[in-house]
Amino acid sequence: MGPIAIGLLGLLALLVMLFLGMHIGVAMALVGFFGMFYVSSIGFGTTFGLNAAIGLLKSMPYTQSATFALSVIPMFVLMGQLCYESGISADLYGACYKWLSRLKGGLSMATVVACAGFAAICGSSTATTATMGIVCMPEMEKFNYKPTLSTGCISAGGTLGILIPPSTGFILYGTSAEIGIGKLFMAGLLPGLLLAICYIAVIVVICMLDPEAGPKGPDFSFIEKLKGLTGVIPVILLFLLVLGGIYAGWFTPNEGGAIGAFGAFIIMIFKRKCTYTSVRNALSDTIKTTAMIFMIMIGAAIFSTFLTKSGAPRELANWAANADVSRYVILLFILLLYAFLGCFVDSLPLIVLLVPIFLPIIRELGFNDIWFGVLMVMIMQLGLITPPVGMCCYVMAGVAKNVPLSTIFKGTAPFIIGLVFAVTVVILLPQITTIIPDMMGSGG
């Protein structure tokens, strides 16, 4: 059996386990263990293969857990959780609400802007969806917004959490691809703003075609609008401190995460939300999320080691480099495969699962790996709002219990057009992703 066949058989076995409901980290570890046993046994015997597979299980959990680059994960997760407990999401939405409420669909636009702002201090799409859903949904219901628009804009806006830095998706991609996380953060900034604008444009079109979908909200005086902005000043300062410090080279992403978490804690104290319960909840949720991500990383490391040993990624890269088709055709195929798998597998596991397979191909074809990382994360957003997985839609269904899941998926459909348009722009204009990282020099 050839290396590509071995690699594809392992991938097929993994997908079967996922469809059966097995935890993604455990499934990758199992397939990686038996795959390593098989490829190491060829020519050396079963004893050698078994020792190699067991050695992988013994070394990888510690190796991954002790990786310094991954220490950035709990810090940024903690920063997001502390900001959530501080009630910052309500302040963000309140400011956007006062400035945009008099426009048709203005509350939905305010929701997207608030989602983008919260994503800048959170890094999780599901957390952004849940948080903004609790804050924004009641206001849109009060002004008789159609459920398709209200739930659709929150679910789509929530996907910005994985794109606008600090992003957990970029942390996992950067760690797997051995790329500077700071540069990936900066690369996602402009595409994140572009996607938010595209979502707002979708809302404008929806309200032009159906004015009843997003009626106008209340009017606020200029003084009230200015007062609303005071609530977001801490968020802006925290965002500029963390990302500005990383960009300027004052500190590494790991240090930036720690500074951000400390800054979020100071904001919690300043807003008088620092209670035993709020701190305990923030720490508990941080531990759960971090443990989940580390389990995925350990399983992915075992699985990717098996793939590398099989030689499948190298063979695929050589095939792609020698294929008699445009490199953009191969890129489109890879992105479509990501989009398809993203409909069935959660975004974070999929990132670490497929990087060892497709990144060698991307590099062999001469594409920029930072640019590809941004494209990949954007495509992952598609799976967050499409059935059958659509995690942001399921989270939204948990918030809006009176809205059927089918209505939520129907509401996200127009926003898929905006997402595809943004992806197309990034493909045609890769400078959108590379201009800021290139200004950082060799650091990051």
Q: Strand percentage, roughly?
A: under 5%
Oligomer: single chain
Radius of gyration, rounded?
A: 22 Å
Helix-strand string: HHHHHHHHHHHHHHHHHHHHH
Instruction: Report mean pLDDT, rounded to a whole number.
Output: 86
Strand element count: 0
In terms of per-residue confidence, which ranges show pLDDT below 50 for 5 or more consecutive residues?
A: none
How many domains? The number is 1
Account of the protein in words:
With 444 residues, this protein is an all-alpha fold. It has one domain (71-296, 313-444). The chain is built from 21 helices and no strands. It has helices at residues 3-19, 24-41, 46-65, 72-85, 88-100, 106-119, 125-142, 147-158, 168-177, 181-209, 222-229, 233-248, 253-270, 276-310, 312-322, 327-342, 347-364, 369-384, 391-399, 405-428, 431-439. Helix 4 (72-85) runs antiparallel to helix 14 (276-310). It is globular and about 80 Å long. The mean pLDDT is 86.
Structure in a nutshell:
The protein is mainly α and 444 residues long. The chain contains 21 helices and no strands. The protein starts with a helix and ends in a 5-residue tail after the last helix.
Q: What features would you highlight for this structure?
A:
0% strand; mainly alpha; 78% helix; 444 residues
Architecture blueprint of SSEs:
Blueprint: H1 3-19, H2 24-41, H3 46-65, H4 72-85, H5 88-100, H6 106-119, H7 125-142, H8 147-158, H9 168-177, H10 181-209, H11 222-229, H12 233-248, H13 253-270, H14 276-310, H15 312-322, H16 327-342, H17 347-364, H18 369-384, H19 391-399, H20 405-428, H21 431-439
